[in-house]
């Protein structure tokens, strides 16, 4: 599969059509999330699943304890304050350099039509790949009982493709505008209520092949524990609004269990 038309359902989604772009942009601006079901063609989904299953033994699996704000512990707050209250995230991940050169994922990620569509919808002037060889395309695995705990994203947007659903669980839940980071309002009472399961999130319904754009910097979100023997597979397509950006060595080692060699960084 070497062309976008082979991989993406362009009959339903014309990425170059102005009215469609405007619909997507307004939906994301108003709701903080955009779901395009059946974005990938069935044959592309199957190829990605096969690639994912063949590469799963390469994945870095880890379990991490963290706060919803993804910040280090702050001794000026009590342990059970939402600034410090810990949740668990557990998953596996293969990195960009472990994605095949002929993978449909690489074709979609690199396609100029797709990137220009994203720029319009996200309100970005340009989008660039990461300057390290690990971070641009990541395939995430969640096996039985693995999950993502409640958290806010550090980035202003996330772009994902659901590849395979588990038999149960693995649901994406979110609470829109749970804080206002630009104003420094962490909204501790609401976050505490969510962490203590007194306030419920909205469940996002999606099927394999769905493209999801999500603004998670101020919307608290999680993925519930997976149930059953079928692994949840989700692809993260990561871009930057500036060229030459690489994840720090610490971030690479935290997320991927290794870091890129200096000679592998793009300058």
Kindly provide the name of the CATH class: Mainly Beta
Oligomeric state, counting identical vs distinct chains: single chain
Give the strand line-up of the largest sheet. Answer: 1-10-6-13-4-3-2
CATH architecture annotation name: Sandwich
Radius of gyration: 18 Å
What is the count of β-strands?
A: 13
Number of helices: 7
Total count of domains: 1
**Could you describe the largest sheet, including whether it forms a barrel?**
7 strands, antiparallel
Protein structure class: alpha+beta
Which spans have pLDDT < 50 for at least 5 consecutive residues? none
Would you mind describing this structure in some detail?
Pfam families: HalD (PF23169). GO terms for molecular function: metal ion binding; oxidoreductase activity. Keywords: Iron, Metal-binding, Oxidoreductase. The protein is α+β, with helices and mostly antiparallel strands and 267 residues long. It has a single domain, classed as Sandwich (Jelly Rolls), CATH 2.60.120.620. The protein contains 7 helices and 13 strands. It has a 7-stranded antiparallel beta sheet. It is globular and about 55 Å long.
